[in-house]
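Shipment paperwork, digital attachment
Item: protein structure file
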Amino acid sequence: MRATVDRPGLDSQGRSPLIKIRRVRKGDLSKVRDVIEQAFGDFFERQVGTRPRQVFGGAQYVHHRWLMEPWGCFVAEEGDGKIVGAAVAVMWGTVGVIGPVAVLTNYQNQDIGQQLLTACQGFFDENKATLQGLATYPYSPKHLILYQKFGYKPKGLVVVTSRALDRSPAAATALAKPAPKPGLAVRRYSTLEEARKKQVMQKVRRITNAFWRGFDVAKEIEIVDGLTLGDTLLLEKGREVIGFAVCHLPPNSEAPHGSAYAKLLAIDSRHRKPEHLHALLAGVEELAAASQLPRVVVPAYTYYWTAYQTLLERGYHVDFTMVRMKRGKQEDYEDPSDLVLDDWR
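Attachment content:
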């Protein structure tokens, strides 16, 4: 399929390139990472006037996501084998999430992004996704229009927040020996025996299924555990798991440099008390301090208003904003009182 050309990216004879969309292979991974970082580096430079030293603050999105969901990763390739675009999609049970999607600057406005999204949508159809979503930049008309062409609607503000940890000796001692609420404990998934991990995973599925039928982040927990990208913290009340937080730690994960990153955090809807969210966030902060990291990064979808307000009360501040876009049945399913902090980037 030949793309319409209205900017550079032509071959030596001035013709539009022949673009092939195919799934990512292992040998493509470094090139895919380069394409994504180059495209987004150009985008950020156009927005703010200077190029970031590290795109995404050093966070990595390619290798482990390909291992987790190889059938959802696609590249746009020229006839000579040059990779000029890439897209990553993942299934969380019945929920499909897209991103990142990138096309090299000189190949943009040639419908390559649409071809990559078409491949992602085919992957979602194959896996019977009942809800699909993504996070993008609300100040970029190009991004918004691209996704709107595929039926995605802007739904709500996403804020990526952070908090600098107090690294004084007194604070370090307090974090090393936290005073948990009576009956509450935070445990690391990595410390469990395999049989216990399977039991815990069923409890996590029950928690997420209550928010959206079939919503399942088990593969996120498994990839973090299997590749030692960080850890998943479990909030226990007695013998019951009432919450979890999937945490990434640098350098080879989605955590920015120098930060612990809580990608997915949820409290069982039957136990949705702010004190439970505080206890789990305290566990994330303790994990960061134990890893000698000075900062914690936590996303918040503001539809989950109580969780967002709890973050602010705890001293987190907003670093930047995005917008969540969704398509599917009953796309506005969130209960503002549910204690969920999740990132669809």
